């Protein structure tokens, strides 16, 4: 290979988060063309790439920018035989190796004429065009029957063109399902049940019908017939002289109450503000309200109508507390961790998310040793998250496990 041809190649080091490898690649960009498009064009990262404060392999590493992020190129230069691009990503400005960029092109959309009957699976917005950024024309309620006349795909999202209350527009296809006509079958039965929560007695077997009464939790009822409407089971009952339908999901088989009191001795703490009552019933007199986090000693327990109660003493008053508001008291020990007041120093590389959910978009991978300011904490699905912020980034991380 001649020196002239060899000059078309540049020596680069892999900037991606994978192991560092040295190799030759042909310069994929026309530098003049890149500069000409710099102020207007959008580019996209082709791999996870290190985002640096300045151009060059010695530039300070700020974080790792994930593959697939759209960025704006503002200038380029060559440092140490490598072409670097100065980019703007969100509100951050820094440098990455330009070999990990390609010109971003909006996906082309295609529209197909169809005719299908669907129903909405949730409340969904009717929009002026096939984009979540366009004007909202109306909100279509869950369970609404619609006719789709055409479909399109925009930015990998499928949309359906429909008409609702005289307004025509686009809805996200992910909120639609094939419409199935409801069949109504009523069966005569005779069973004794009790309500598991306060439940509405309705004129007919639908949540849209008139409410005749509200039946309290724990009420004993006799069901004389059942029906299923829109995949929801209903029971026909008589309550205080009024006959109507209640949702079967709020009923359970009635069991005669058996009262058993057990002597115990355990230390608990309240998980919320809770009432201390004269007897083991929500209908009995309230003696006092015990604050959340109060430590108590339980001397006996009982179960009435499937509700467990605990007997305890608070400020000289003795009575019953619903056990669902109690938890076993534990002694808290704090293990060693690189913690500063309202901040944390990471012991390992950590993913930064947009929301406290691993299914949400990942913003960046924060390097080991980074110090982050903790703004707030939150438990989601038994996982503790921290809302953190550094000089360059902010988002959510899974709270690191304390280590000895």
Query: Beta-sheet strand percentage?
Result: over 45%
Identify the overall geometry: flat
Backbone structural class: mainly beta
Number of strands: 37
Give the second-level CATH assignment, the architecture of the largest domain.
Answer: Roll
Number of separate helices: 2
Distance from N terminus to C terminus (CA atoms, Å) equals 58 Å
Number of domains: 5
Helical residue percent band: under 10%
Q: What is the CA-atom radius of gyration, in angstroms?
A: 32 Å
If you average the pLDDT, what whole number results?
Answer: 82
Largest sheet: 5 strands, antiparallel
Outline the low-pLDDT stretches: 1-29, 34-40, 331-341
User: Strand order of the main beta sheet, please?
Assistant: 8-7-6-3-9
Question: CATH-wise, what's the superfamily of the largest domain?
Answer: SH3 Domains
CATH class membership of the largest domain: Mainly Beta
Briefly summarize what is shown.
The chain is mainly β.
Fold and architecture overview:
The strands form 10 sheets. Strands 8-7-6-3-9 form a 5-stranded antiparallel β-sheet. A 5-stranded antiparallel β-sheet has the order 15-14-13-10-16, with no helix packed on it. The protein is built from 2 helices and 37 strands. With 404 residues, it is an all-beta fold. The chain has helices at residues 3-6, 31-37; strands at 9-13, 22-26, 42-45, 49-52, 61-65, 70-79, 82-89, 92-97, 101-103, 111-120, 124-127, 136-140, 145-154, 157-164, 167-172, 176-178, 185-195, 199-202, 211-215, 220-229, 232-239, 242-247, 251-253, 261-270, 274-277, 286-290, 295-304, 307-314, 317-322, 326-328, 339-340, 343-345, 350-353, 362-366, 371-380, 383-389, 394-398. A hairpin with a 2-residue loop joins β21 (232-239) and β22 (242-247). It has 5 domains: 3-103, SH3 type barrels, CATH 2.30.30.40; 111-178, SH3 Domains (SH3 type barrels, Roll); 185-252, SH3 type barrels (Roll); 261-328, SH3 Domains (SH3 type barrels), CATH 2.30.30.40; 339-398, SH3 type barrels, CATH 2.30.30.40. The relative contact order is 0.07. The radius of gyration is 32 Å and the shape is flat. Residues 1-29, 34-40 and 331-341 have low confidence and may be disordered.
